[in-house]
Amino acid sequence: KQNYRIAVLPGDGIGPEVMAEAIKVLDAVQQKFGFTLDYQQYDVGGIAIDNHGEPLPPATLAGCEASDAILFGSVGGPKWEGLPPEKQPERGALLPLRGHFDLFCNLRPAKIHPGLESLAPLRADIAAAGFDVLCVRELTGGIYFGKPKGREGEGEDETGFDTMKYSRKEVRRIAHIAFQAARGRGGVVTSVDKANVLATSILWREVVEEVAKDYPDVTLNHLYIDNATMQMLRYPAQFDVLLCGNLFGDILSDEAAMITGSMGLLPSASLNADDFGLYEPAGGSAPDIAGQGIANPVAQILSAAMLLRFSLKQEAAANAIDTAVSKALSEGYLTGELLPAEKRDQAKSTSQMGDFIAQAV
Amino acid sequence: KQNYRIAVLPGDGIGPEVMAEAIKVLDAVQQKFGFTLDYQQYDVGGIAIDNHGEPLPPATLAGCEASDAILFGSVGGPKWEGLPPEKQPERGALLPLRGHFDLFCNLRPAKIHPGLESLAPLRADIAAAGFDVLCVRELTGGIYFGKPKGREGEGEDETGFDTMKYSRKEVRRIAHIAFQAARGRGGVVTSVDKANVLATSILWREVVEEVAKDYPDVTLNHLYIDNATMQMLRYPAQFDVLLCGNLFGDILSDEAAMITGSMGLLPSASLNADDFGLYEPAGGSAPDIAGQGIANPVAQILSAAMLLRFSLKQEAAANAIDTAVSKALSEGYLTGELLPAEKRDQAKSTSQMGDFIAQAV
Ligand SMILES: CC(C)[C@H](C(=O)O)[C@@H](O)C(=O)O
Ligand SMILES: CC(C)[C@H](C(=O)O)[C@@H](O)C(=O)O
Fold this sequence. Notes:
Two copies of one chain form a homodimer.
Chain A: E1 3-11, H1 15-33, E2 36-41, H2 46-52, H3 58-65, E3 69-74, H4 89-100, E4 105-111, H5 124-128, E5 132-138, E6 150-152, E7 159-167, H6 168-183, E8 188-193, H7 199-212, E9 219-224, H8 225-234, E10 241-244, H9 246-260, E11 267-271, E12 277-281, H10 298-310, H11 315-330, H12 350-360
Parallel strand pairs in A: 1-2, 1-3, 3-12, 5-10, 8-9, 8-10
Antiparallel strand pairs in A: 4-5, 4-11, 6-7, 11-12
Bound molecules: 3-isopropylmalic acid (2 copies).
């Protein structure tokens, strides 16, 4: 198949402006690599609340269903912060999309790019040792979706409750993905749980051990989540692939992203068993800088590359984008937030970054 | 009352050697401040498994019941790592003690001592801004103790499950402690939850908002746990008191401890409604350096000071210990792990640290 339909969901804040650059780059590769992309744009998040009364309108969901992959920008902003949780742009769009398409596999690479070590919030010697991890997070189970969830009782005895829950098969399918990914990387999986306290984690650890037998060439370590959070600061270079359930993956992948100090460079993929997926930058909608043309489009562009790789199987085109991005970064072609104060006058705009990368592919 | 009984549980690894120094310091203050301490020592953790077949033997529990407070060392080591979770030294001793005595309030101060900024794993400019937080963690509820917890189903459909649960009154009592603590500190409470996903967190947030009305002089902020983990790295100086449930507090208090880069200095208190408490260092049993006389006793000594302050109401004696410790640290009287490699020859031994602090009180 050489013609694909992409559901484009720019969202709020900087979403639309960085999305425009990702499309620019996709346009460049589709010519070069001989496939065509049909973009269909839909409202999501805050703008969807404004235009249609809900963060994930039926037309948006239908558009996603009719597509080969979803390219997602970012959602949310102060305007919608007072809404009840399930109506909020981020939660109200992302959780239903993950559930609806069974996007159980979240891949979040986080690395410190050579030359950008000084952006990391870590001590210079720790950052210099390097950091390059892939967080593999289970995304449709655990305490996010476990039932029962709710409230009961009266007055001061009223309780709120949630259920953390994993089945063997849920753990097994995400564990296989982590081990396979480790084979193509550093060959080490660190599984993160809280098996000294949680029954869910004891089962998690058992299944991960079973899966590990199929990958004798991959080293498996286990860490408790509290210890993992500390080891990420003490010696982050030790990690390769991090395998986590939904909640621990939420926490640890954000810690890993912050460790790089360059959130604007980090893409993500959320996949189902058929390699259908949603691709989005790791950072947020950054309403404070929206509309100024200074947002970094790289995370969105690398998310588009992941889309080509995982959902469209256009590996060569994906690699071309990754290489073009590395070229931009290594040549010091950077947006302002990646530059020290005294070099801010050399900052490239959002569209200059997109132009450079589109030309380099 | 001027005569107190203290249950002393040294435990494993460096536990006994740092405990000896804490006792030395307690002996010094009891003379000076005119009260007497009757120490009763009991096995706990690995040594209790070896001597009595279980990490928390009945005699130890009975000894704790007969005392005014528990001074706990640290437990665990490679010898007992293969045991099933509930039999392991740490979990098998701490969780039952917390549950039995209803130690719902965990206080974990974490700060970067002036002069020790370079130990922090953070970038120099971030560490230089300072870091001084108090983690207030709920310790007897949440997903640690919520029922049901266990396994069900067969084969690949077998699931493990845990229940996160908080009642209004559980949230209320820990929230009051956080707000009161903030009054005596920086006046800011940051409550950490995951209210965009968890029903428990929505109730948590509601109750914390209610409690905040009683403290108009204290500022309240809310952060999602994933964002809190990031903000702790980006700009840790912004935090004062962190208020968390059991699981998020486990993660965030360990992250805060690691941020200081000097875990050997950090004490903790776990209290019930009657101010009975268990006091222990934040770090572990460090079996790799046990018996060498090089472990830092400060965390154990500061834990003893918390014991005097919270359970025995001997504030003056507690302050004297805190002041003596600050004197040691500011005069560069330090154990080896706090010194740069080229100054290691000036390192003080475990007992030298204890002697200095005992003399200084
Ligand atoms: C918006 C929120 C529900 C979501 C999550 O917790 O999964 C976000 O933090 C993420 O990681 O994508
Ligand atoms: C040993 C373990 C059960 C415990 C916890 O998770 O509470 C420990 O990590 C702690 O923080 O005291």
